Amino acid sequence: MSFDTAAFNIVWPALLAGLLVTATHVPLGIQVLRRGIVFIDLAVAQMAGLGVIVADRLGFEPQGAAVQFAALGAALAGALLLNWTDRRWPEVQEAVIGVSFIVAANAAILLLATNPHGAENLKDLLVGQILWADPARLGVVAVIYAVILALWFGVGERAGPISEIWRARFYLLFAVAVTASVQLVGVYLVFTTLIVPALATRRMARGRLVTGYALGVLCYAIGLGISLFSDLPPGPLIVCTMAGMGFALFLILRPQAPT
């Protein structure tokens, strides 16, 4: 097998995983930034990760259905809790989200403290293993994301941003998306893909979504390419690439007058 073929076989599932995460997280990120709840993805992702750790502690197979249900259940429970606090104490919602993240993160550390592979498991949860994305699993994730996007751009848009039903739907769709994403690319890439494109295109009144998508796709491709030829971990490379290019784009773009 030639180097080019071997490299392609390694990179294409990882790039596809990045494209799938970008597809859902850019529009979600724009909404998150608009709501001023920037750290919600860290909190929900950490809750999903906590569910994975609990299921692993109970002896379930790492890639089994029980672990997936545990991750989704933990994320949904966290999303419903945050939806309730958003309605009850909206003025301190960002603080509540931050506390939720800290509690979930430290609970995970405590559960992993007696695990001989705890440090490695925690690193995988945060940094991810995007180069080892399973092509078969990507098909399932693609279907999940397609349903999320259909609900987001279809029913959700008609429901209106201030609808109580839409408020709950946002948190639930967010929980499902993050649960799938964090197991593909890790907490750090989930946060970066959600926030950086939305922040970089914040000054745009037109073409914001398309530009955000382009930024995400380009940075995943560049980061994976650099990783392939440098043997550096792809997750941190993509995070740094997206942050740098996003900052440059933010400086270049001028505020646009809405039409």
DSSP strand count: 0
Assign a percent range to the helix content: over 70%
CATH architecture designation? Orthogonal Bundle
Strand content: under 5%
Name the CATH superfamily classification.
Answer: ABC transporter involved in vitamin B12 uptake, BtuC
Order of helices and strands: HHHHHHHHHH
User: Which fold does the CATH topology refer to?
Assistant: ABC transporter involved in vitamin B12 uptake, BtuC
- Tell me the name of the CATH class: Mainly Alpha
Give the helix/strand class: mainly alpha
Tally of DSSP helical segments: 10
Average of pLDDT: 82
In short:
Helices cover 80% and strands 0% of the residues. It has helices spanning 3-35, 40-57, 65-88, 93-112, 118-127, 135-159, 164-185, 187-200, 208-230, 234-252.
Q: Could you explain the architecture of this structure?
A:
By secondary structure, the protein is mainly alpha-helical. The protein has a single domain, classed as ABC transporter involved in vitamin B12 uptake, BtuC. The chain is 80% helix and 0% strand. It contains ten helices and no strands. Helix 2 (40-57) crosses helix 7 (164-185).
